[in-house]
Amino acid sequence: MSSVVTGSAGLLGRCLVQRLQERGDVVRQIDVVGGPDTLAIDLRDQAALAAAVAGADVIYHLAAAQRMKPQFRGLSEDAIFEMNVEGVRNVLAAAERHAVRKVVWISSSGVYGVPQTVPCTEAHPTEPLGAYGRSKLVGEQLCREAGARGLDVTMLRPMSLFGPHMTGVFPLLFEWVRTGRPVYLLGSGTNRVQMTSAWDVADACIRAATAPRSRGAILNVGAAPERVPTVREQVRALIAHAGSRSPVVCIPAAVLRTAARALNVVGLSPIVPEHYLLADTTFILDIGAARDVLGWEPAYDNVAMMNAAYDWYATAGAAYRPEPRAALKVLDAIAPLVRAVW
């Protein structure tokens, strides 16, 4: 089978490409970053994209701009939104033009916003909190419209991804644990937040490409809801796994939101609105539909996937260490005081 993977240099892209190659697929890799065996294509370039997907059986569209990714950090919220929406529109148009059999697109749990009911089913109201989530919601509508024209599209809504080559907010946590510095929790840590392994999402993508009932489906993807611990339990399990002496420090959610909003205005916040507005919220998806439609079952629970991602990070070297941004320098400066009073 001939497969195209957009966003192939990212966390999910690397896992999916490996899974596809293991089963013998011919894989064309596309990423704005480029690299060995990877076509450097901006998905807003319609001609280059159309040429790259010609003859493909399946397109796995994973690529998306997000401010937590280093290569997109300088983009505005409007630019993030426009880049993501245009990418979806062009991928769908290229698929239709070349009669691609199947498109599997990665949306996000970010379309739900603040959960009103837990666990969230796919029928939960969609009220995204930032440009990334809004772009995913518009992308879903574009996929539905393409489906109405006859294109076979499946949309997956995963929770936060864990695995090798992670970027974003969680390497901050890993670095605190690796160096024995205090670990700062956003809120009390008694809430529960589901995660998902990039390997599990890769397997769901491959199943979605062939499952007969996946046509037009929107499916939640995450770890088994019944095995999600509290955030505090999750972090303590990681600290124990790493053999670290990091203390756990809870920052009141109201204080965090106020500080993060102010830092976000001037571009200094290490987290985006989707993080600080959900800081002390329980967020769990119902994955029953994915289990039923795809015959899929997550292999990793929250603790196992975080520990595995940490092990990769701990040996990955300086290239993956978080940048010492202003807000993080402040936390580092108060770390000795935190240890003294803990």
Question: What's the gist of this structure?
Answer:
The chain is an alpha/beta fold and 342 residues long. It has helices at residues 11-22, 46-53, 77-97, 131-148, 170-179, 198-208, 231-242, 253-265, 273-276, 288-294, 302-316, 326-341; strands at 2-6, 26-31, 38-40, 58-61, 102-106, 153-158, 161-162, 183-186, 196-197, 218-221, 248-251.
Task: Describe the overall structure.
This protein has a domain at 2-165 and 196-223 and 285-300: 3-Layer(aba) Sandwich (Rossmann fold), CATH 3.40.50. Helix 1 packs across helix 6 (198-208) and helix 7 packs across helix 11. Strand 1 (2-6), helix 1 (11-22) and strand 2 form a beta-alpha-beta unit. The model is unreliable at 338-342 (pLDDT under 50). It is built from twelve helices and eleven strands. The protein is α/β, with parallel strands linked by helices and 342 residues long. Helix content is 43%, strand content 13%.
Shape: globular
Unreliably modeled segments: 338-342
The CATH superfamily name of the domain at 2-165 and 196-223 and 285-300 is NAD(P)-binding Rossmann-like Domain
The CATH topology of the domain at 2-165 and 196-223 and 285-300 corresponds to Rossmann fold
Strand order of the largest sheet: 3-2-1-4-5-6-10
Please specify the SSE layout and strand pairing.
Layout: E1 2-6, H1 11-22, E2 26-31, E3 38-40, H2 46-53, E4 58-61, H3 77-97, E5 102-106, H4 131-148, E6 153-158, E7 161-162, H5 170-179, E8 183-186, E9 196-197, H6 198-208, E10 218-221, H7 231-242, E11 248-251, H8 253-265, H9 273-276, H10 288-294, H11 302-316, H12 326-341
Parallel strand pairs: 1-2, 1-4, 2-3, 4-5, 5-6, 6-10, 7-9, 8-11
